[in-house]
Amino acid sequence: MRRVVLAVFLVVACTTVAAADSYEEAELAYDRGNYTHAARLFRPLAEQGIPAAQFHMGLMYEKGQGVPQDYRTALKWFRMAAEQGYGGPQNNLGLMYERGRGVRQDVVRAHMWYDIAATMLSGNDGKVAMERRDRLASRMAAAEIEKAKEMAQRCQKTKFKECE
Fold first, then answer.
1. Residue 11 carries which DSSP code?
2. d(Cα 19, Cα 103) in Å, to the nearest integer?
3. How confident is the model at residue 19, as a pLDDT?
4. Do the beta carbons of residue 62 and residue 69 sit within 8 Å?
5. Would you list the domain boundaries of the chain?
């Protein structure tokens, strides 16, 4: 029994180390502009549920880097990472809803995602999310802002299970 437990532990440990190495390799390929290779490396990690890899896949589909540009697929990857509490893709979901990319334009949902991102992100990234939220709010009715805030609270309270 101990051998089985040890064998399982070693497989998990090696898989975790391999995933970390693959992520670093994927990130390096992305930073160097080798997007096709980066997409090949990020995809299995994203499919395993790694939010940073999902975020990168969303970025690549949004911009058409190494994959065909596809806003709906970008939205899917951003949503998967955002539902794990990852602030960057939450901010990008705000942009997608605000601009109507891959989804029907919806300022209430855009405000909601910007609001959530502003609480999850720190430093300049958090400031950018707040600025986007506030700029959008200046064009919204008070009832729309209130609805967006209620949706953001429900989304966060349910640990991102009830966001849509």
1. H
2. 32
3. 59
4. yes
5. 1-71, 83-164
Place of tokens 């309270």: 157
Scan for tokens 């990130």, then name that residue: 27
Structure tokens given for 141 = 């009715």
Q: Do 78 and 89 meet the contact criterion of CB atoms below 8 Å apart? A: yes
> Residue 125 has what pLDDT?
95
Q: What gap in Å lies between CA 53 and CA 33, rounded to an integer?
A: 16
Count of CB atoms within 10 A of residue 52's CB? 18
| Predicted local confidence at residue 20, as pLDDT | 63
Measured distance CA(97)–CA(105) in Å, rounded: 5
- Between CA 79 and CA 89 the distance in angstroms is 7
Tokens matching residue 122: 């720190």
User: Which residue positions in the chain have pLDDT lower than 50?
Assistant: 2, 4-17
